[in-house]
Design goal:
The structure is a homotetramer.
Chain A: E1 19-23, E2 26-29, H1 34-38, E3 57-61, H2 66-71, H3 78-160
Antiparallel strand pairs in A: 1-2, 1-3
Chain lengths: 161, 161, 161, 161
Amino acid sequence: MDAELRCNRLTCRKTLIDKAVVVSIVVLSLIDCANELFNASRLCPACETSLTEPDDVVVCSLHPTNDYKTSVLSGLSPSLIMEICSRALSFWQYQIHQENSFQHAVIRNLNDKQAQLQKQLDNVIREANGEIDLLGNKVTELERDLELERRKVHELQDASR
Amino acid sequence: MDAELRCNRLTCRKTLIDKAVVVSIVVLSLIDCANELFNASRLCPACETSLTEPDDVVVCSLHPTNDYKTSVLSGLSPSLIMEICSRALSFWQYQIHQENSFQHAVIRNLNDKQAQLQKQLDNVIREANGEIDLLGNKVTELERDLELERRKVHELQDASR
Amino acid sequence: MDAELRCNRLTCRKTLIDKAVVVSIVVLSLIDCANELFNASRLCPACETSLTEPDDVVVCSLHPTNDYKTSVLSGLSPSLIMEICSRALSFWQYQIHQENSFQHAVIRNLNDKQAQLQKQLDNVIREANGEIDLLGNKVTELERDLELERRKVHELQDASR
Amino acid sequence: MDAELRCNRLTCRKTLIDKAVVVSIVVLSLIDCANELFNASRLCPACETSLTEPDDVVVCSLHPTNDYKTSVLSGLSPSLIMEICSRALSFWQYQIHQENSFQHAVIRNLNDKQAQLQKQLDNVIREANGEIDLLGNKVTELERDLELERRKVHELQDASR
């Protein structure tokens, strides 16, 4: 049931499978994206603050071992454990919130495109109908003219006979 | 940052503001929807199991008082507290997961509609072009016929003179 | 492993088994103690503030059903869940802290009693030794006096013969 | 309110202040005790299993930085966060439980010592009383004998006169 997190780089957005790079509020797919973004700068890709503390950029295993799960917070007091737990849930919620905002942006974008397409369709139909009407009128006019000329030909043939 | 939950009834989907009715894995906006669905049956709207236990249907305040927040789990052991906490987080994740699935269904639906609209546009353009070509050909044909008749008229007039 | 909580009333201190009465920061064994303390007053037994809110005094089941565990916090956001969870852990920690303080008071009390007993033992030994010495001296003195008198008897008997 | 943890080595039992060494279910004060116990063996001081995994022995900071608190579990799913949180609470509860058992052992020990001391006091009083009675009897006997001899002296003096 746990919703999967995606790489926060908009040009990537791959589902994070095994490991991830956590930078302040941003999560990135490992190597592929982190290396490209951090080659020299050590700036947060989201807010551009400089990342100087050792825990600012952390490689996080998404499937920690049982040993790690047992020992990582062992020795801490309940209030510290709950604080860390709350911070990690907030991070996860922020990611879910970002994902949700992204989905809503996609929906807005799709609705815009659809409205545009509908408008284009209406225009095409109106223009086509305009042109077809014009051509229809021309055909009617030409058929009338042709009928007149044919009548003239008949009259002239009758007169010459 | 907390994502808001929505009434799980598809015809409602209002954001839950103050109170909600929790039925097994389903959350419903109060009065508006719960009363309509539960007037006689007491069946879960999601899975149709019969709801017989007193805690099966619970009216939940989304903004509990400080007194309630302090006392609701007081006296329980840490392992029970964590179990209850995990169940409530799972419920919330399930809701987020449902919301996310709903968004994805909306996106799929919008993409289908857009493909349909694009196809309709292509059809309209093709059919209009076909009709315009037909009419264009007819105009060309009629103009040619008209020219021929006019020439005949000239020739007959020249001959009679 | 979960440490058991005890009724906070010092004259009771029974292990809480099934249900408990939670009053602000105090936990009480049901009926036995709560009824006696709350018959008229509705004052907190710990801090004497008046308990007026409905959630100020709560009967808490120490072994809630699965249905209750699932539904009690369902519908709440993760941050509310964590806040409630932290408050319940603080309550539990406060109880453990109280129990620990009680054990330390018992140990201090036992150490005081032992020091007193040791002092009493030392006093008894010193007084007994004093009395024994006194009596010993008296015996020595009496034996010397007796010896003198016996010698006098012998001398007088020898003189009279 | 957070109860402090103590070094689990019975000959140390110092309150853990800043850093601690966590070994499976055991927590140790840094350097002082860990180095002595682990110089060559890498066996758990509690259960003697061999500690081969990298996370089996962990140096844990009891006052982690905010950066660490934010990043240590970031990227993990709520269910993993709750699992880790529950494991850390269990560790803390185990420590509290151990501390509590230790306090109870201390109390049992003090009660035993007190009973022994009381018994010793009773014995001393009984033996002293026995000896005092004996000496008292001896004094009485000697005083009677002395009185008899003195009377003899008087009779002999009267007779010689």
